[in-house]
């Protein structure tokens, strides 16, 4: 089964992202707006129980972090994808690294670029037009993230939460 690890932002930020995703994201109906902190990976039911225990340990050691979105960007020419750029910070990078070590290690297909996708699989003309307009706008959104989710993919391609992990819950 395919699993992934993501952060779901506040409803306010999801609403902003969805205002674009409804029209420009071919995967709009499969998963809510999110920040992927670990690329999708394969695991069987036996492995996932070990990984869940490891995720609980990681979550206790990691601190909540600031999710700051300032602008729109694109992965063009690698892919015709539009996204909300998430500012890197030490806590976010630490979480990403922790989720990619030990038994969670998997070869990465792409470098980690924190973002929330708002459009993908667009034709070039549409991408160019929409991104041209979005480059002139700023998002200027900030919130604190205190949890991440382990997701699994259903047969129809939809992603569903398997378990939620609170960051820093080991602190007293």
Automatic annotation (TrEMBL):
A motif (HXTX 1) lies at residues 34-37. SUPFAM superfamilies: LigT-like. The keyword Nucleus does not apply. Keywords: Hydrolase, Ligase. A motif (HXTX 2) lies at residues 115-118. It comes from the Bacteria. The active site is at residues 34, 115. Signal peptide: none annotated. Pfam families: 2_5_RNA_ligase2 (PF13563). GO terms for molecular function: hydrolase activity, acting on ester bonds; ligase activity. Belongs to the 2H phosphoesterase superfamily. YjcG family. This is Putative phosphoesterase FLK61_33440. It comes from Paenalkalicoccus suaedae.
């Amino acid at each position: 089964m395919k699993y992934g690890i993501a952060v779901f932002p506040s409803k306010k930020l999801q609403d902003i992202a969805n205002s674009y995703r409804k029209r420009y994201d071919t995967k709009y109906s499969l998963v809510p707006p999110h920040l992927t902190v670990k690329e999708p990976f394969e695991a069987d039911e036996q492995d996932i129980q070990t990984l869940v225990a490891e995720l609980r340990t990681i979550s206790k050691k990691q601190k909540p972090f600031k999710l700051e979105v300032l602008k729109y960007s694109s992965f063009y020419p690698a892919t015709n994808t539009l996204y909300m750029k998430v500012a890197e910070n030490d806590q976010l990078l630490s979480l990403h690294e922790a989720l990619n070590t030990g038994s969670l290690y998997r070869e990465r297909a792409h470098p980690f670029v924190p973002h929330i996708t708002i459009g993908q699989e667009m034709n070039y003309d549409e991408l160019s037009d929409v991104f041209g307009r979005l480059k002139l706008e700023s998002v200027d959104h900030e919130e604190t993230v205190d949890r991440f989710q382990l997701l699994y993919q259903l047969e129809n391609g939809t992603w569903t939460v398997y378990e939620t992990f609170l960051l820093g819950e080991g602190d007293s």
